[in-house]
Amino acid sequence: MKTLIKNGTVYIDGAFCARDILIEDEIISQVSDSIEAIADVTVDASGKHIFPGFVDLHAHLRDPGQTYKEDIVTGTRAAAKGGFTTVCAMPNTEPVIDNIAAVEYIQRRAKDLGFCKVRVIGAITKQSEGKEISEMATMKSGGIIGVSDDGKCVQNARLMLNCMKYAVNYDLPVIIHAEDYNLAGKGQIHAGRIASKTGLSGIPAIAEEVIIARDIMLAESTKARLHVAHVSTAKSLELIRDAQNRGIQVTCEVTPHHLLLNEEATQTFDPNTKMKPPLRSEQDRLALVEGLKSGLISCIATDHAPHADYEKEREFDHAPFGIIGFETAFAVLYHHLVRAGLISLERLIEAMAIAPANIMKLYQPGIIEGNKADLVIADLDAKILVNVDTLLSKSKNTPWLNQVFMGKIVTTYCDGDVTWKAD
Amino acid sequence: MDTPQFLGRNVFDLDDYSAEEIMYILEAAKGMKEINLREYKKIPTLRGKTICTLFVENSTRTRMSFELAANRLSADVVSFQAEVSALQKGESLQDTVYTLDAMGIDLYCIRHSSPGSPQLVHKHSGKPVINGGDGRHAHPTQALLDIFSIWEKLGDIRGLKITIVGDILNSRVVRSNLIGMKKLGAEVTVCGPRTLMPSFMEEIYGCKVEYDLQTALKDADVVMGLRMQLERQTEGLFPSLEEYTKHYVLSKETIRYAKKDALIMHPGPMNRGIEILPEIADGGQSIIVEQVANGVAVRMALMFLILGGKA
């Protein structure tokens, strides 16, 4: 099977240029100025942009155990629609992914039924209970790419030290959801002006920062590779910058919602503005945008967290934390950051397609001859409407409901197969 | 000035109401108070209307006040109490509202521990909602009755020095009062231990923040105490009630820093001997009991205005 994509504006090595791309089976066989070949399918991509497939380091597919929220089929279909060709599944399912059988279950399901590649992140501690080290080595042999207790945070510093030591031995990055439970308390939103006004309990910025500071020191001492999930405060970024300057292996990701929304959004009591970490102050948000621009924050991750409407649509402090993100990530960021001139399209693509694959050492990313054909064709002048009818995810919990954004993913190719094609 | 329009409006908090509208409500409440002093305390103005008191968090006093208000306007009242209802069996607030709405409710008065729940009730019922207290967020009818009580005694609120003392962090009464009192031009000072003071108070409300009672009370026209709860001690917010009382109790001794005839208020229920001494609570400057009476009048006024009762 040969597919020839002609006349596209293609992301090559950090820049856009006119190229034709030939896909043979699952491989990119040729990339050059002009390809004249007989193909089974020829696509005219005039006026369209072509990106390497997006990689999401942070997704909750809810499978196994919570498939009323999402499953591997609906989750990966939504991911493909958003331009993702690889997503990394967080282990906080029911049961928790803390053993090789569970790792293999997800990989097998994704391979058989998925619309994108799914890589598995194993738990740091058994059942993510923060008590005993998980069987990281066995899970590594089953294919995990890193460890995380995401949604939870190992509170015991001595245990975390040992988890990091153990992870180093198997070259597993340690991905942290940084939250000190005592400081976070029963917090619902950022401990700022809106918390003071609404009386909703606050999650202070320091609840995140003290754990990042602790884990940077533990990573320095153990030589572990530390990746900070969904970084949300200006001070967290300072800690990470200082650590990087001292040569400590620490990276971080940011979500689209922390880049685009601040605590003000929560004053409507819309549970779709409730997530962990919470939407922070405007000052924090601006620091995150700056951090993404400068490269201090290397990548975008969605923290796609589906919840059924009957769980989410209730009293704010009873609603679960989290929002979905696959189908909106590119469009909201393109619309609000790139078109607004805050970051370049090149930087956005680097943060969504290149950096995440590199940080987790998943594969050599990019539109390069010989690479797997993971590609996205986007029409930057076309709009997408986000609503309950257009969303493919089983759950519809997004703060961007009923809004329109520029930047439509037209076609997604994963290993050469068309996994998403817009009408 | 145009007559303010109240028909069908929600009372989530006082930020949705202008100073003129608040004054209009107080004037209406004055008329209602007069009805409450009659021998036959009832007018037929809301006959045929149905008001539901939806109390998911317990509060006998506030519920009675709402229900008395509705009864005196001749509305039919249905009372929903969480502890004997389907909510205890796991039904969601949303489904509860659908069920109640099917029975033809015209106005909801809700008390709930979750901030924002009145908005949720309105969203799913489409009916006007009066917030009877939602968590630590707002308690607009309490604020209106407090402001009414001050206005009745001292006249114009503008320029009055009002000091509120106690657990500011956990008080919905303070938050709503700050909005209303500031709108009417009062100078409000909040005072309490630093651990019970929310951040950004000056910025949000334009009030003063003091941690020392004597400084806070200086020249106050009105002093309001707040309920201090023992559980804050186990939450690690202050060391002991004894120490709290020593520094923040309203007593003859401390109140002398305020103006000589300053009004003494408390939203109740009081912890006598902790935040306020009986000598003050029952003293000549106290209007604590009148506050309760005024609560019925203010709630009558709101129901009347929102449901478009005929005068």
Describe this structure in words.
- The complex is a heterodimer of chains A (423) and B (311).
- Chain A has 13 helices and 18 strands.
- Chain A is of the alpha/beta class and 423 residues long.
- Chain A has one domain: Metal-dependent hydrolases (TIM Barrel, Alpha-Beta Barrel), CATH 3.20.20.
- In chain A, strand 11, helix 6 (193-198) and strand 12 form a beta-alpha-beta unit.
- In chain A, helix 2 runs parallel beside helix 3, helix 4 packs across helix 7 (205-222) and helix 7 packs parallel to helix 8 (234-245).
- Chain A starts with a strand and ends with a strand.
- Chain B is built from 13 helices and nine strands.
- Chain B has a five-stranded parallel β-sheet. Chain B has a four-stranded parallel β-sheet with strand order 2-1-3-4, with helices on both faces.
- The longest helix of chain B is centred in the C-terminal third of the chain and has 19 residues, at 288-306.
- Chains A and B meet through helix 6 of A and helix 4 and helix 7 of B.
